[in-house]
Amino acid sequence: MFILSGIGNNIDEIPIGLINNIKDADLVFLEYYTNFVDNSILKYLLNINSNIKLIDRDFVEYKLENIILNNKDKKIILIVSGNPLFATTHFYFIELCKKNNINFKIINSASVFDEVGKTGLFLYKFGRIISVPFHESTDFYDNIINNYRNNLHTLLLLDLDPKNNIYLDHKEAIRKIMNLDKNRVFNEDFKLIVCSKLNRDGEKIYYDSIRNLMNMNIEPPLCIIIPSNLNKIEEDFLSCMIS
């Protein structure tokens, strides 16, 4: 059996279904390339099953398939950060199991898209979720503009490299946007929302001008929201949550 499970950002968010299945699992793999795994979560899980293996992108893309196919009679669990179906990479393993008559199960957990609800912004007013990469690219900016012109909020996920403990910080992400913003859709007075350590110890939400945010040091992990027109309910709730 193959189980694909999310994990959340703290111990309280770990699904009971995952905890129960880990106890007697034969092979347990924990991804760490899509997000940083909190040490408290890792310790907690290792106390339940000491054979959990941390895996990177190469392992998922080039090795996991054969392990699943060669161990059909065993319980294999792949644990990922947030919602396990947030990234299409994991769709493949469900299709693989279906084609090869391998029983499978999906255990959901909260993703960053659920957690940004703490800002008070209506989730149905969000457009396409956009990743801002380390490398130079223009595609992400085009998608930001499409959202903004359609009066949709934009959630920006900032690139990260957990293996080397490197984050793309909010300043660099904003700088990338401003460098591509030739039509000056966003000026230094435009206000952004920056979320720091959502659902972790030290969580903070900032709502300030680009000018001020560029002078702040904000702890990762981070995400940025480019708001469209906020209604009064959104504004009032956001004012309750900002640091």
From TrEMBL:
Matching InterPro entries: 4pyrrol_Mease, 4pyrrol_Methylase_sf, 4pyrrole_Mease_sub1, 4pyrrole_Mease_sub2, Dphthn_synthase
Tetrapyrrole methylase domain ranges (all copies): 10-211
Q: Which SUPFAM superfamilies match?
A: Tetrapyrrole methylase
GO MF entry, a single one: diphthine synthase activity
> Which Pfam families does UniProt cross-reference here?
TP_methylase
- What keywords were assigned to this record? Methyltransferase, S-adenosyl-L-methionine, Transferase
Cite the binding residues for S-adenosyl-L-methionine. Answer: S111, V112, L158, L198
Q: Which GO terms describe its biological process?
A: methylation; protein histidyl modification to diphthamide
Coiled-coil intervals: none
Task: Copy the pathway line from the protein's UniProt record.
Answer: Protein modification; peptidyl-diphthamide biosynthesis
Top-level taxon in the UniProt lineage? Archaea
| NCBIfam families per UniProt | dph5
Family, per entry = Belongs to the diphthine synthase family.
Kindly give the PANTHER family that the UniProt entry links to this protein: DIPHTHINE METHYL ESTER SYNTHASE, DIPHTHINE SYNTHASE
Query: Know the name of this protein?
Result: Diphthine synthase
Native source organism of the sequence: Nanobdella aerobiophila
